[in-house]
């Protein structure tokens, strides 16, 4: 068995288009105008924990990051579990806790690049004009619009760490191929289900980042049946539905549970609403691991490491 070293609403895609030469300064296209960076940043501040892991993976000079509300997905500081150890090793400080935006903290951190999100619980889009008025270069990304590899390339370009972005992508691909070569993938399709996460229920689309990791391992991920489309209450990478409609929405022969642990598998298997699912009857329900909620380089590898032992050759 191999081991991995480890210490997670779409309005627009934000491609990095360099209008200058490969050297500096670099001009980065943003939805509200170009961002020009005169030199490689040396003090990167992340207001979005969902992107901090990618910045750390490409060795960008992250000095501080906003942190999430402490819970099952984080350590005691609010760092996401998949990159918490790396952040501590590198001395990354807390910009502000609980995703509670604090412009004074940003001013004190003296960044030469602020990385921000346009969507999600860590979005700060309404505050971006104020930050720019303070003279801070702000790069806005929408992590619902792109996989982590695309985001790594965009951030690599903005920080001068393009080679590091390509390095971690190649490393991830190589490790995934090695895992796949040691696996026997069962016949049929699989569903990825978010089961009772903060009281919600949803089924992954085949295009979600989690589905991409499983597809790289050889699985075929299916979404909910088209006939269920009218029962969707909201949709991003996952289609959200009511608990009562969950059984009808799961079309896979097997089920992977998002953020899943052995305890959540048991709860899923014991749910009377789901008792007649083929995956439940056949015991084909597997946890994706507690860091699978937001896929980056670290959590993606942890997903592979979690899944591979279920299907040995």
UniProtKB/TrEMBL annotation:
InterPro entries assigned to the protein according to its UniProt record, in alphabetical order: ABC_transptr_periplasmic_BD, Bact_iron-sidero_bind
Pfam families: Peripla_BP_2
Domain called Fe/B12 periplasmic-binding: residue spans: 43-313
GO cellular component labels: outer membrane-bounded periplasmic space
Residues of the signal peptide: 1-20
Biological-process GO terms, alphabetical: iron coordination entity transport
Location of the protein in the cell: Cell envelope
Record keywords, A-Z: Ion transport, Iron, Iron transport, Signal, Transport
Similarity field: Belongs to the bacterial solute-binding protein 8 family.
Record NCBIfam families: PRK10957.1
Protein name per the record: Fe2+-enterobactin ABC transporter substrate-binding protein
Species the sequence originates in: Paenirhodobacter populi
């Amino acid at each position: 068995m191999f081991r991995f070293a480890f210490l997670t609403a779409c309005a627009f895609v934000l491609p990095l288009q360099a209008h200058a030469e490969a050297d500096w300064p670099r001009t980065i296209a943003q939805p509200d105008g170009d961002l020009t960076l005169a030199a490689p940043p040396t003090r990167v501040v992340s207001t979005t924990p969902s992107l901090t892991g990618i910045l750390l993976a490409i060795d960008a000079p992250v000095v501080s990051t906003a942190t999430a509300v402490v819970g099952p997905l984080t350590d005691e500081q609010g760092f996401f579990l998949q990159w918490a150890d790396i952040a501590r090793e590198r001395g990354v400080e807390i910009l502000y806790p609980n995703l509670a935006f604090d412009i004074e903290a940003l001013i004190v951190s003296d960044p030469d690049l602020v990385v921000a999100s346009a969507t999600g619980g860590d979005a700060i889009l309404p505050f971006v004009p104020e930050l720019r008025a303070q003279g801070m270069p702000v790069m806005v990304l929408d992590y619902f619009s792109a996989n982590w590899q695309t985001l790594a390339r965009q951030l690599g370009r903005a920080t001068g760490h393009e080679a590091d972005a390509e390095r971690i992508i190649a490393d991830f691909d190589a490790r995934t191929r090695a895992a796949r070569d040691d696996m026997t993938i069962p016949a049929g399709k699989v569903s990825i289900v978010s089961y009772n996460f903060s009281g919600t229920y949803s089924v992954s689309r085949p295009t979600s980042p989690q589905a991409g990791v499983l597809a790289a391992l050889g699985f075929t991920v299916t979404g909910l049946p088209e006939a269920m489309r009218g029962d969707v209450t909201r949709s991003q990478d996952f289609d959200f539905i009511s608990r009562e409609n969950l059984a009808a929405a799961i079309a896979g022969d097997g089920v992977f549970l998002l953020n899943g642990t052995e305890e959540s598998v048991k709860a899923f298997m014991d749910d009377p609403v789901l008792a007649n699912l083929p995956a439940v009857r056949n015991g084909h329900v597997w946890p994706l691991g507690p860091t699978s909620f937001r896929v980056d380089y670290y959590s993606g590898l942890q997903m592979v490491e979690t899944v591979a032992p279920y299907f040995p050759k």
